Amino acid sequence: MNIKLAVFKFASCDGCQLQILNMEDEILQLTGKIEIAYFMEATSRKLEEPYDIALVEGSISTKWQEKHIEKIRANSKYLIAIGACATAGGIQALRNWSKNEDYSKKVYPKPEWIDTLAESKPISDYVNVDYEVRGCPVNKDQLLWILSQLIIGKEPFTPTHSLCIQCKIEGNTCIMVADGKPCLGPITMAGCGALCPKYNRGCYGCFGPMDASQAEKLAEHFINMGMSKREVTLMFKGFTSWSKPFRKVVSKYGGDED
Amino acid sequence: MLGKEYEFKIGIIKKIREETYNVSTFHIEVEGLNGEVKPGQFNILYLFGGGEVPISISEIGRRRLAHTVRFTGTITNMFRELTVNDKIGVRGPYGNHWPIEEHQNEDILIIGGGIGIAPLKPIIQYVKEKRSKYGKLIILYGARTPKDLIFKSEFEEFRKIRDSELHLTVDRGDEKWKGNIGVVTTLIPPLKLNIENTVAFVCGPEIMMYYTVKDLVKKGIPETKIYISLERRMRCGIGLCGHCQIGPYFVCKDGPVFPYWKIKEYFGVKWI
Amino acid sequence: MHTRGLPLKKLGLVIGDWRDLERLFKYLKDSGYRIIGPKVDGNVIKLKELKSLREFPKQISDHQAPGYYRLEEGDFFRNGDDSPKKYLFPPKMEIFKVNRDLSISFREIEKVKIAFFGIKSCDTASITIMDKVLGERGDSFYKHFRKELFIVTENCIKPGENCFCSSMGTGPRVQSGFDISFTRIDGKILFEAGSERGVKILEKLKLPHANAKLKKKFIEVLEKAAEKAKANFEKRFLAEKLELAIESPIWKELAEKCLGCGNCTMVCPTCFCFDIYDEVFLDEYSKRVRYWDSCFTYKHAEVAGGHFRPELWARYRQWLLHKFSYWKRQFDMLGCVGCGRCITWCPVGIDIRKAVEKVLKWVDENVR
Asked: Are A179 and C68 contacting, i.e. CB atoms less than 8 angstroms apart?
């Protein structure tokens, strides 16, 4: 029997859904094992609930979404949050540090039309999440692996160690040591394929904190390297800033300032 | 051949016995393993796509081996879906064994906690088969609640073994439970042991083994005659992958069974 | 195979120049070896395939300090961030493929003939360690890659700031486990053989013996290098002494800066932990893939329903005591060759030499 897969979107940019669409060849092989029951980005065809697997992209940002995610949870056997928005609140969680109106006034011509919650939060703050796939966007190989594991009836598993381990396995040179550039690799979860360091750019933590992440210690090290508090804050105040370990750093060094 | 050390044989599940709500015993028919299986050894079982998991052998038959599995991890949870005649990968047997042959003519004291009774069961089987070669057989077995006791259907058989005692205990009882309540160590002080001639085999959660050994030593059993079987994360089973180390020992190869004197300096060191 | 000790009597030090090193390179290449040696790759020297000895970074040096590595102009370089380990024990490698019916498709890997050319003495020692840890214990892939290995070692005339091979007894002059060594001295190259194979090849180069004056210079240079590559502790009884601190509170202090990122274990030329994942593709087949793992990861000692090393300080202790203490009881040797990579490539610059010193100091002050 085919697995009924649904893909939902909340506050997000659709980039993670795009990764699913990018699995072109694999998606063909998936048909026959998995049936797309709901995936607005790909097809307007809808199948009846309940669903076996719900992939949820995006953060909870409005009242309507609060209700909607509960309904999805109730109608899905297995709920997977995909991407930085769904697992950590996303870039839009930056507003969690300031007044909502400040942002909406700057962005929208008619801010009074905007009805949002004060904070953008991950799915797991609202409903029980069975598995989280990290990244901005998610890595499609990892996603395929997770779906494959579910097809054979296994709880998904992906490594939860530091990006550094993956970076070394890939044969990259440490840009912190060899270039003196700050990098969040040592405290960020692996899974992206060490893309940024491969191109000589510091990791900005889009996969969020690894297991037992020592974010505060790394922040302290950045300060010792000569970075200002503001620079350190900006390092951590990115796509996964609302994850607990990163949030702690932002609160410590940035507080309420921009 | 490259990767030969990880080659598994195909085993066929012949019988599944549900022990508790989260433990089942799988009787697997398999041929061509590394060698004769001895009490206390383990196999590494493989489920397609899921991966491998080390499982101790709870019954040794001529062609069939029983593996008692608790469904607590990503791979062991997949065992819930297995049915009779399903195929799984089996490699092993690995690790050392309870040195039961070296302790003939002695009284055998078996102490199991939770699923730790599983690797001890082959000793019971062995003593039963060679009954005249051993003295008294004393089995202490504790679990969290009556619902967590495994091998319940065999308790009567254990009791029927000539010159044997089976003492059960649970941490928390229920309405029906009339037996002892308390951790397994509470069963030790009242025991009448022939200290001079008793060997103890212990397996269970680390904390349980820690206190059990202390109480056994207090009772007068020498450290050289107390054996414990350790649990560690094991991935390869052949002393290569490094996960199962405790101090200088690879539990998968140097263990899992250790005479207490040998492991003493590391066992009980915090987070070793 | 490699002999223990040097057949110095047979050959001794012979003298040549850069062109003779090129001749040796060419000879090995023509004999079918894939030559792996140091080469500039971006802003680091890595071990890569060398097509010609011109790629050897003769005029380049490196500045290394804790958590710091920069290339600069100069005449002598040390280790980069990779080591022979990655060729003998690849960081990620498919072991075999399991088909849906549980049959196994084993891999066939072509015979490999690798010659390491210009690795340092510490790395040569690391191969001897891996021979015991992986080879003798039955890693079939290691044995496959190792089988035809040829080792040309460069004696280390200018150890770096983070080097402490001479304290670990692995350098700066290579003692065993090599086929041919060479030393750059005063624009000349001094060659020495370490195996019967090495002797035969050096004889083919027909080089003159070094005179007493050059031999003296050779000894002087390497003695000076040995002085430099020292830590403030002795190898003697190191394993036993460190273990006396097993229950010391010092580990918490030592791990204070540690991020648990595992870089030290990745760059270590002897760290051998690995994990095997099932990379299942739909329900069609599953690849069993071996990846380097690290005792610093949170999950390393975790089991379903329990955790044996949940705290980072305990994982730090495991690493350090494994390298310097447990290893000795496991393999009758130490697991550290003093290459200093874990110091250089630690993103926060934790210095294992200082950590060892601190543990020893704690033992001196607290164990009576």
From this structure: no
**End-of-domain residue from the set B93, B116, B146:** B93
- Which residues contact residue B67 at a Cβ distance below 8 angstroms, ignoring those fewer than 6 apart? B25, B26, B28, B43, B45, B55, B56, B57, B58
Chains that touch C (3 or more CB pairs under 8 A): A, B
Contact with chain C for residue B6, Cβ under 8 A:
yes
Q: How confident is the model at residue A255 (pLDDT cuts 50, 70, 90)?
A: low
In-domain check, residue B166:
yes
d(CA B174, CA B4): 50
Task: Please report the number of interchain residue pairs, chain B to chain C, with beta-carbon separation below 8 angstroms.
Answer: 134
Q: Pick from B93, B115, B146: which residue ends a domain?
A: B93
In a domain, B268, yes or no: no
Which of B70, B236, B271 has the CB atom closest to C314's CB atom?
B271
Q: Does C289 touch chain A if contact means CB atoms closer than 8 Å?
A: no
- What are the 10-residue block averages of pLDDT along chain B, 272 residues in total? 96 97 97 94 97 97 95 95 97 97 97 97 97 97 97 95 96 94 95 95 96 96 97 95 97 97 94 94
Query: If contacts are CB pairs under 8 Å, which of residues 225-254 in chain C contact chain A?
Result: none
Interface test with A, best of C40, C261, C284, C285 (most A CBs within 10 A): C261
The CATH superfamily holding the domain A3-151 is: NADH:ubiquinone oxidoreductase-like, 20kDa subunit (3.40.50.700)
Q: Quick one: pLDDT band at residue C112, thresholds 50, 70, 90?
A: confident
The pLDDT of residue C125 = 98
Nearest by CB to residue B231, choosing from C303, C311, C325, is C303
Q: Same domain for B133 and B239?
A: yes
Compare all CA atoms of chain B with the CA of C104 and give the residue at the minimum distance.
Answer: B7
What CA–CA distance (Å, rounded) separates C322 from C327?
A: 5
Measure the N-to-C terminal CA separation of chain B; round to a whole number of Å: 36
Asked if pLDDT for residue C301 goes beyond 60, the answer is: yes
- Give the residue on C whose Cα is nearest the Cα of B8: C104
Per-residue model confidence as pLDDT tens digits over C35-51: 999 999 999 999 999 99
pLDDT, one tens digit per residue, over B56-68 is: 999 999 889 999 9
Residues 6+ apart with CB under 8 A from C72: C60, C61, C62, C63
Write out the two tokens for A252.
């410590």
Measured between CA atoms, how close is A154 to chain B, in angstroms? Answer: 6
Report how far residue C135's alpha carbon sits from residue C141's, in angstroms, rounded to the nearest whole number.
9
Contact status, residue A118 vs residue A242, Cβ threshold 8 Å: no
Inter-chain contact B49–A157, Cβ cutoff 8 Å?
Answer: no
List of E strands, A91-250 = 131-133
pLDDT at A19 over 60: yes
CA distances (Å), A93 to each of A82, A122, A208, in order? Answer: 16, 9, 13
